[in-house]
Amino acid sequence: MAVDLNVDSWKKDWADSFQSERAKYESNHRTPGCRVTHMFGVPMIILSLPVFFFNRKGGLTLFAVGWILQFYGHLVFEKNSPVFLENPWNPNTYVSALSLVGNEWMSFFKGFHESLMSHKSVANVEAEQVTEL
Description:
By secondary structure, the chain is an all-alpha fold. It has helices at 7-27, 32-54, 56-78, 91-132. It has one domain (13-132). It contains four helices and no strands. Helix 1 packs across helix 4 (91-132) and helix 2 (32-54) packs antiparallel against helix 3 (56-78). 14% of the residues are buried.
């Protein structure tokens, strides 16, 4: 049996598979409520892994609460099942979760930063108007 050592072909296949899984993942996480539960649940699950080695109870608590948040988001807000239940061994599902959550947090902080900057510029304009009086 021959082994395909064409790295470019392998990368393209993985990228296509990831893009397909990412689109599917996005389509199952449309509501703000589900996205917010994932913004907290996914990091809790990730954080639980190293915490478990130092504090088993703390790690297990983070892990359990993180998953409860995920299921709550799907049950209450999306009214669907988590994507990973279709194929729990698909690494692209987990990478898609990290990608979605990372993008959500970046959008949140970008909006927060822009909000702060707009308030700062309003304050500067008001200060200038006061000094002109």
